[in-house]
Design brief:
Radius of gyration: 16 Å
Number of helices: 3
CATH topology: Lipocalin
Oligomer: single chain
Strand order of the largest sheet: 1-2-3-4-5-6-7-8
Distance between the termini: 33 Å
Order of helices and strands: HHHEEEEEEEE
Signal peptide: 1-26
Keywords: Signal
Structural class: alpha+beta
Amino acid sequence: MSPYSRILFVVASSVALATAMAPARAQEAEPVELNEAENAFAKAMAGATLVGSFTLGEANPDEPPQLHVERYELGDVHKLPNGQWQMQTRIRYGDKDLKLPLMVPVEWVGANGPHPTPVVVIDNLFFPGAGTYSARVLFHEGHYAGHWSSKEHGGVLFGKILKAKEKP
């Protein structure tokens, strides 16, 4: 399995695992009341497309890492009663086109300050058949950036958040 295929497998497996582990009633529950920062995050992400790049593997200090294109189309985005966020996603690559609900924990940097910043935080999460992964992805002013890793490899990711009206 190529490294790129492995990453795509990890994404698909994580979505399936998160969906299977979530209680059915949490997905059907009434919307959770959001504070101002959470409301802004939900509005910014709902219907948005994340378009950017990621690196794979450990970079050779003498050569820059190669970039790979990534694209995630989001539908409904909302916070669940268990504190996690559910995002309806469409992931397209090659001849694959997957529509899946993704559940992720979101923490807030500077939560008590004037500009709280959302960060998706995944720590040593096991994905059957793929391994254990960790990631931090920060969202700020229409952009995202972060780091992901496993025992075998890792990389960085970054890109722009296109609002629904900005899509071609």
